[in-house]
Amino acid sequence: MVGVTATADPSTPRRIAQLAIPALVVLAAEPLYLLVDTAVVGHLGRVPLAALAVGGVVLTFAAWFGTVIAYGTTGRSARQFGAGSRASAVSEGVQASWLALALGLVILLAAQALAGPVTRTLAGNPEVARSAAVWLRVAALGVPGLLVATAGNGWMRGIQDTKRPLRYVLGANLLSAVLSPILVYGLRFGLVGSAIANATAQIVSGTLFVRALVAERVPLRPQPAMIRAQLRFGRDLAVRGLAFQACFLSATAVAARFGAASVAAHQVALQLWNFCALALDAVAIAAQSLVGAALGGGRVAEARWLGRRIAAIGLVCGTAFGLVILAGAPVLPRLFSSDPEVHHQAMIAWPWFVGMQPLAGVVFALDGVFIGAGDVGYLRNLTIVAALGGFLPMIWLAYGLRLGLGGVWAGLTLFIVIRLALLLYRLTTERWLVTGTVR
After folding, report:
1. E strand or H helix that includes residue 264
2. Which one, of 135, 6, 4, 124, lies nearest residue 58 by Cα?
3. Do 56 and 267 form a contact (C-beta atoms < 8 A)?
4. What is the mean pLDDT of residues 399-415?
5. Beta strands in 179-336, from DSSP E residues, in sequence order
6. For the segment 35-51, what is each residue's pLDDT rounded down to a tens digit?
7. Model pTM greater than 0.85?
8. Which of 135, 208, 350, 367 allows an S-S link to 55, with CB 3.0 to 4.6 Å?
9. How far apart are CA 28 and CA 31, in angstroms?
10. Containing H/E element for 368?
């Protein structure tokens, strides 16, 4: 294809916004629910809040597998959709849903068997570990639904359908946000009530996405060859996700060893960070869909232009988030805990949290560009380099030198800086601009 201009092509900033804004609501629904849940549990005391931090980070590990499936499915579906075959794009979603269901059942069984040892390893406090294990076993009942829903988000993003995921995810999480305070306080279930509300949202959401697949009237039987192809595509994303989780699990483990107040404050900052990350990921979701469709249709110039434009949009959005978080410093931590020591510890992490937002905006945007392009091998390698060469040495140095929560969040910032440098370098090359329906 000859040149593509920003004004002539449908992939204009308006089209990016049409995909990114509904995706923002979908992405924000889950962390918003978790923020509500953190606020509800936080007023039970520092031990329940610390238990939620430990159990929640393990459940986040399971959710990352769903993200791997969703991102891989978006890229593959978008290329098929860009080549003109909606049915083939949806078929990718069918096979991804079978894969998600199988993985979800495996994770559910593993959580029931291993919740105790895992939480004891992470918590460093027997009381926190016991409460976290109970929470995790109940919340894990929703994992199959969670993974099926993420697969559903993947194929719907690939076909540029943003309306149905918006209704499904938002509705399920609003239901759960209402249930959480009722179960925790009204019915006096305490911390377990939080886990029940969490699992309910995931099961409802997964069921709605299954119904959507049935409505597409495509064959629903498993196709092992396509599932194997998705596994190969997702392998690099999975390794990348494992590197992320090694970082976040290490951060929680180190924060826990600085005391209950430190890990409780880390939970507050981490949930806010997750909210910002997923909200900024709305731009990345648009990038996956649009870049994948452009390369699937052979439109190289359009894909190159999208990469640069989306990086700039990510910078603007990340800066805006940083300013909001800076302004909210006196208020936000107190929404989640009335404990003065928890608030003091949160303020130690806050400057790092604020400062990394503009950089993170560009990083997340470019992640979406390269996932849409299928350039997942490079993303795997740069994440491993950033984790092993930056974050993990910093986090354990913080533990050894007793640098506290500031050292933990300095490590997270270093992780972002290294990834930013390597992503910007890749954008200047031609290696990610590969056309066709499958990379």
Report:
1. helix 260-296
2. 135
3. yes
4. 86
5. none
6. 788 888 888 888 888 88
7. no
8. 135
9. 6
10. helix 357-372
